[in-house]
Write a structure and sequence with these properties.
Layout (H helix, E strand, L loop, with lengths): L1 H30 L21 E7 L3 H11 L13 E8 L5 H11 L3 E6 L9 H12 L4 E6 L2 E3 L4 H10 L4 E3 L2 E3 L5 H22 L11 E4 H8 L11 H9 L5 E3 L7 E3 L5 H12 L7 H24 L5 H25 L9 H15 L1 H4 L8
Parallel strand pairs: 1-2, 1-4, 2-3, 6-9, 7-10
Antiparallel strand pairs: 4-8, 5-10, 6-8
Helix pairs in contact: 1-10, 1-11, 2-3, 6-12, 7-8, 10-11
């Protein structure tokens, strides 16, 4: 008899938890995500460059990527009135064992604004992983404005540099950009691209809301002073990677941080081709989450929890007497989110199909369950 009365009580509790999860999801969509669609692009101040920039790239066994992508980086339209390039490109060869040194040598004969720094295999390191190479590159930089990217990244236009540093011209100290991935057939590629879009939607709209917490090192501009300040923080050397997020953690404020999402300012990279290699990459990425500010961790945790509960309770409550209302509420939530995601993909020049949205939506719940332990566990000490 007790079980007979317990069942409707339990169903009622689960139903109201479902309502709460949907409400939280809709609040996030309206309070954060819609900010992207009203955000204005920062316009470069003039036709000619006034401030020189140092582009810093860390490379470890990246000969093929450097040969493919460096010419596009070295072809940026960022010159003074005399037509002289107002930027340098510094590549840090981090103890590579392939032909990276030779590729850089030959490219330096063609491009006067390119030069490199080599780190020996047995060189003593004061920072873990990529941070040591990045620190060497920034120390060698000639100019106070930095643009950071990776060897496997290609700018989408010759205006990439000009667009990314435009907010620095207007007094900002950190600029978060978008780094997308090339499109290939298959579920893995679709999910990688969707997750990248979703992540950008999160961190960009948090910046617009005055709560900066992350950026991507594939496309990030900052001042040299800000980078040096981040290096001196006690959390900087906690992980071998996460330099982008930790820089935001140490130095980003609601007033000194901007987002650039103009189509000419993107970078594009080769995505992972296997689930195993992609999961290993994401383990490194999510391990930085434990160093976010407490309020950011809470907000992100509530969002991810509401997302998971909305799906788990949806499937559970389909068998209750209120299943029609449950179906309607979830359909409403999906209509809002899938429209936002599709609109964001369109603005980011990604032709991800709406038909992938249900699988990506459900897949993100599995993704969070699978990777959440790595937010707590200590990451390995190498970056490649």
């Amino acid at each position: 008899m007790a079980a007979y009365y317990l069942y409707p009580v339990l169903t009622t509790i689960l139903f109201w938890l479902f309502i709460l999860s949907i409400a939280i999801q809709l609040w996030y969509a309206l309070f954060f995500f819609t900010r992207l669609f009203s955000a204005q692009h920062t316009t470069p101040s003039g036709e000619y460059a006034q401030h020189p920039v140092s582009i810093v790239i860390c490379a470890k066994n990246e000969a093929a990527n450097l040969k493919r992508n460096l010419p596009a980086i070295l072809a940026q339209r960022y010159t003074n009135e005399a037509g002289k390039p107002m930027y340098e490109v510094i590549v840090v060869n981090d103890a590579s064992e392939d032909d990276t040194e030779e590729v850089l040598y030959y490219l330096e004969q063609e491009y006067s604004q390119l030069w490199h720094v080599t780190i020996a295999q047995d060189e003593e390191r004061i920072f873990q992983g990529k941070k040591f190479a990045l620190g060497r590159g920034v120390s060698a930089a000639s100019w106070p404005w930095l643009l950071l990217t990776d060897a496997d990244c290609e700018p989408t236009s010759e205006e990439w540099l000009r667009r990314m540093v435009a907010p620095l011209e207007h007094g900002k100290e950190i600029v978060a950009g978008y780094g997308g991935y090339r499109q290939y057939p298959g579920l893995l590629n679709a999910f990688i691209r969707w997750e990248t879009i979703h992540t950008f939607l999160q961190y960009s709209t948090y910046i617009f809301a005055g709560k900066p917490y992350m950026a991507v090192g594939r496309n990030l501009a900052c001042t040299k002073e800000v980078f040096t300040r981040a290096q001196q923080s006690e959390v900087w050397n906690k992980l071998p990677s996460g330099d982008d997020d930790l820089l935001m953690r140490c130095c980003a404020t609601r007033h000194n941080t901007a987002v650039v999402w103009h189509r000419d300012a993107f970078t594009v990279s080769e995505p992972k081709r296997s689930w195993r290699s992609w999961l290993m990459q994401k383990q490194r990425h999510v391990s930085t989450g434990k160093y976010y500010r407490d309020d950011i961790q809470l907000l992100l945790g509530i969002y991810a929890g509401a997302h998971a509960f909305s799906w788990l309770l949806f499937f559970t409550l389909l068998f209750c007497s209120s299943w029609k209302l449950v179906l309607f509420l979830q359909a409403m939530r999906c209509a809002v989110y899938w429209t936002i995601w599709q609109s964001t993909a369109y603005r980011l020049q990604d032709r991800i199909l709406l038909s992938w949205m249900p699988l990506c939506d459900l897949g993100w719940m599995i993704y969070n369950f699978a990777l959440s332990p790595y937010i707590v566990w200590k990451n390995k000490r190498q970056w490649k």
